Structure formats: C-alpha cells, structure tokens
Amino acid sequence: MNEAWLVTGSGGLLGQDVMTGLREAGETAKGFDHKGLDITDAHAVRDALAKHRPAIVINCAAFAAPDKAETDEEGALRINGEGTRNLADACAEFQAHLIHISTDYVFSGDDSGGAAVPFAEDAPTCPVNAYGRTKVAGERAVFACLPRTGYVFRTAWLFGAGRANFVRTMIRLEREKDHVDVVADQCGQPTWTMDAAGQLLRLGRAALGGQAPAGAYHGSAGGQASWYELAQEVFRLLGADPQRVRPSTGAAFGRPAPRPAYSVLGHARWHTVGIEPIRHWRAGLEAAFPSLLKAEEPAQPI
Question: CB–CB of 282/155 below 8 Å?
Fold first, then answer.
C-alpha cells in the first residue's frame, strides 16, 4: 500500500488540520493518532512505514505540555527525542522524507541581547525549559539521520478549532468574566493551525520536487505579539472591550516551566526556496475566528 503522506499525531491540534489540508489539496494521506501509532515503539514505526511506504512523513506527535515536562523530562524525551529518532531511522531505511514539527521554545528567548531580532533558522538553540531541551533532541535526531531528506518545521503559539488552546480559552472567558489577567512580558507569533498546515503542504511538495534543501524552516505567522495583545485582539473580534484584558507578568502565574521572553522566529529561508512565509497573525486569527467561535459555542440545554 503506497501513501504519499503519512502523518503521526493526526488527532492533535495541528495534526487534525494537517490531515484536512492534505485531503482538501487532493493528496493521499494516512494519519495515525497516538493510539494508532506509538512513535516510541521502534518496531511499530518501522512496520507502519513498511506497510504504507510514504514518500513523506509529517511528525506531529509530541509531548507538548511544557509544565508537565518540567516534572517528567524523561517521559517527554521518550516521545520528543527517542520517538523522533525512531521515525528518522525508519524514514532513512525506506527512503522517505521527514518533516518534524518543532517549536520556538528551542531558543533562549533572551531577545537577542535586547535588540528584539527574530531568531534565524540557523541560530544556535539554547532552550530554557525541559520541553525545549527534548525538542532539541528530536531536531538533532532528524539532522543526524536524514542530512539530505530531513526537515525541522518550527512553529509557535498554535491556535485552532480542533482542541483547547489559548484563543479558545479567551473566547470562553470573555463570556464568563468581567476582566481577564494575561501575560504581557512574553512575545511570540500566534499561528493558526490551518495556516501552518498549508505551509507544511508547500514545504513537503517542494521537498519532494527537489526544490527545498533539508534543514530548519520557521513555520510561524508574521508579525509578533504578547499574550496580552493577542487576548485584546480576541476581545476586539468578539465586539467586547479590549480594556477588559489586563496586563500581567509570567512570574505572577508561577508556572513550573520558564517561558522564553522573546521567541519570535525569522522567516528568511522561505524566500530562498520560492515560498512565501505565513501571513500576519492578525489576518490568520480573523480568518480562523468563525471556526473558533463555533468550537466554543455554549452547550444547548436538553
């Protein structure tokens, strides 16, 4: 059985929209959620690739909870590091390309020495938390096992209709609370999962066509914002007063995993392969909003 695309983690926030995007584009794709394929099982991974013989694999499977990773780094490493290596090894054996989803959290977030310069694709990784360290391990596995056919797609601050996320939470809290306190001292790039899925499709096609060299690509939205600014924009789109969102600090929330203060990603490499970067985050949020509202509709009484 030959499938052009194989997607791991297809039941997750990004994985769902990757599958939707591939099918809408007319691609043949096989998706595995975490129950269908445990990427930490090397034999199962090899069997899946042997059966489906994909031309390209998109790895959306991940331990994606930074706070939980602080207390279970070994568990996070099993999935984000060792699981990714299993996929890379199998892709090498069956001559498949691999696009591995990574994160802005692989960078230190020190705002490039105060200059607030986006991190380039080749900037040195230096994560500040356990989650970032385990994602770096996955990146290194891809680069080591697949020097010519391995791709790392770093994205950031994902939102979409498929699962709970910050934007959906803000939509719900606008109904429930008079005011919402939101972190204002962390800056990144809110990215709609459907925009990321479209960029993955373009990168995959370019990779298979020999037009995109292996390596790291930054699949985050254009522009930048703090969580506070993102929440204000959500309230504005809801027709609510953005002043109901109040700025706070990351320290005030006391979360176990430290977050990068500045993790904005640069997009220069897309232009070298003839692909436009993802649009501005505000445009993506506005396009996504109808589906986000529908996902957060209050349950109707029986």
Answer: no
What are the structural domains, with CATH classification, of the chain? 5-160+191-222+262-279 (3.40.50.720)
CB 139 within 8 A of CB 100: yes
- Could you tell me if 106 and 259 are in contact, meaning their C-beta atoms sit under 8 angstroms apart? no
CA distance 285 to 195: 10
* 3-state SS assignment for residue 60: coil
Token code pair at residue 171: 């939509």
Q: What is the pLDDT of residues 224-237, one digit of tens each?
A: 999 999 999 999 99
The residues near 272 (Cβ < 8 Å, ≥ 6 apart) are none
* Residue 99, beta-bridge partner list: 58, 151
Whole-number Å distance between alpha carbons of 227 and 187: 7
The owner of tokens 């080749």 is: 122
AA identity, residue 210: G
Q: Alpha-carbon distance 82 to 2, whole Å?
A: 26
Q: Which of 131, 151, 228, 262 is catalytic?
A: 131
Beta bridge partners of 155: 103
Clarify whether 151 is annotated catalytic. no
Is 302 exposed, middle or buried, given 0-12, 13-18 or 19+ CB atoms closer than 10 A? exposed
Separation between Cα atoms, residue 127 and residue 218, nearest integer Å = 16
Residue type, 120: A
Q: How far apart are CA 34 and CA 62, in angstroms?
A: 9
The label of the residue with tokens 């972190």 reads 183
pLDDT digits (tens, 9 = 90+) for 252-292: 998 999 999 999 999 999 999 999 999 999 999 999 999 99
